[in-house]
Write a structure and sequence with these properties.
Order of helices and strands of chain B: EEEEEEEEEEE
Helix content of chain A: under 10%
Distance between the termini of chain B: 34 Å
Oligomer: heterodimer
Number of helices of chain B: 0
Shape of chain A: globular
Order of helices and strands of chain A: EEEEEEEEEEE
Largest sheet of chain A: 7 strands, mixed
Largest interface: A-B, 24 and 24 residues
Shape of chain B: globular
Structural class of chain A: mainly beta
Strand content of chain A: over 45%
C-alpha cells in the first residue's frame, strides 16, 4: 500500500526556517518524481515544488523560489522541503504528493495527509 | 502563468442528480488537465488526468471532457460520498503547475 507521511510542521516566527519531511513507503521511491503542494486556510491548492526521480532537477513556484529548497534521499525514501525566510503568507497545510507515473507526469497521485505550518 | 478559472464556485445539488463542473484556462493547455476531489481532513484524490482518463479505482460516474481552454467534470449521479471540493490542475506549462480555485459541491 502506497503511503506518504509528512512531518515537521509547527509554529514559527516570520523570517525563521523550518524543514518538512515526507516518508514514503509501499512503492519504489527512486522511480518517481515527488512534489509539495500547500493549502492556505480557506484557500485552494497551490503547487510549491517538485523534484525529479534522482534529484537531478528541482522545480519551484515563483512564490517560493529562492527561499524554499526541495531535496530527496532515495536511500531513506524521504523527500524534504527546507523553508527559509518564512512569511505569514506561507501559513498552510503542506502536502507531499507523488507523480502519477515514473516519468515526470505533473499529475499528483497519491497524496499524504499534510503537515500544518503556521508562521506567526 | 496559466490561470484556471472554475465555475460555479458552489454547486448545490441532491443525491442522484447530475453535477457539471467547469474549468476554463487562460490559454490552451491541449488535454493537459486533471481533476481532484478534496474532502475536509482528507488527502486530495486524483480523479481524472489528461482531461478524460479516469485514475485507478475511480468510479465510472466520474467523467472528464474538453480540450484547449474549456473542460468539464461530470458526475452522472451524485452519491452522498461525492460532496466535496473539486479542483482542476494543468501541467501544460511544466514545470509551472497551477490549480483552479475549486468548486464546492454541496447538498
Amino acid at each position: 500500500q502506497v503511503q506518504l507521511v509528512e512531518s515537521g510542521g509547527g509554529v514559527v516566527q516570520p523570517g525563521r526556517s523550518l524543514r518538512l519531511s515526507c516518508a514514503a513507503s509501499g512503492f519504489s521511491f527512486s522511480g518517481y518524481g515527488m512534489h509539495w503542494v500547500r493549502q492556505a486556510p480557506g484557500k485552494g491548492l497551490e503547487w510549491v515544488a517538485g523534484i525529479a526521480r534522482y534529484g537531478e532537477s528541482e522545480y519551484y513556484a515563483d512564490s517560493v523560489k529562492g527561499r524554499f529548497t526541495i531535496s530527496r534521499d532515495n536511500s531513506r525514501d524521504t523527500v524534504n522541503l527546507q523553508m527559509n525566510s518564512l512569511r505569514a503568507e506561507d501559513t498552510a497545510l503542506y502536502y507531499c504528493a507523488r507523480d502519477l507515473w515514473s516519468s515526470s507526469s505533473g499529475w499528483f497521485d497519491p497524496w499524504g495527509q499534510g503537515t500544518l505550518v503556521i508562521v506567526s | 502563468e496559466i490561470v484556471l478559472t472554475q465555475s460555479p464556485a458552489t454547486l448545490s445539488l441532491s443525491p442522484g442528480e447530475r453535477a457539471t463542473l467547469s474549468c476554463r484556462a487562460s490559454q490552451s493547455v491541449s488535454t493537459s488537465l486533471a481533476w481532484y476531489q478534496h474532502k475536509p481532513g482528507q488527502a486530495p484524490r486524483l480523479l481524472i488526468y489528461d482531461a478524460s482518463n479516469r485514475a485507478t479505482g475511480i468510479p465510472a460516474r466520474f467523467s472528464g471532457s474538453g480540450s484547449g481552454t474549456d473542460f468539464t467534470l461530470t458526475i452522472s449521479s451524485l452519491e452522498p460520498d461525492d460532496f466535496a471540493v473539486y479542483y482542476c490542475q494543468q501541467r501544460s506549462n511544466w514545470p509551472l503547475l497551477t490549480f483552479g480555485g475549486g468548486t464546492k459541491v454541496e447538498i
